[in-house]
Amino acid sequence: MTESILRKKSYLFAVEIVLLVKKLQQEKKEYILTKQIIRSGTSIGANIREAEFAQSDADFVHKMSISLKEANETIYWLDLLKDTDYLGKEEYKKQVHNAKELLRMLISTINTMKKKNKK
Fold this sequence. Notes:
Layout: H1 2-28, H2 32-51, H3 57-83, H4 89-118
Helix pairs in contact: 1-2, 1-4, 2-3, 3-4
């Protein structure tokens, strides 16, 4: 059940990131930072999808760990966009909240799988 929630939330987050990038490119003419955040922000869900067909538990953990790293990187880009005045406070808070929620869910999923494999 957690994976389906994680799958859904990561997809919705990717949609939000795409819309954010579109807005920043149209309104602020920002293209360099947005290339980075669209890559990391959409990669979270893509790796979660890859994990669904992992060849082993270790492969699953590896794909989820990549998603975790991408979520953390996305928070970095959100911080940078906020601190350089490309992103407003409310939009920043919303997106960081969503990214941190994904981080927590990914950590929980990874830890659960690791505990399962130790038994």
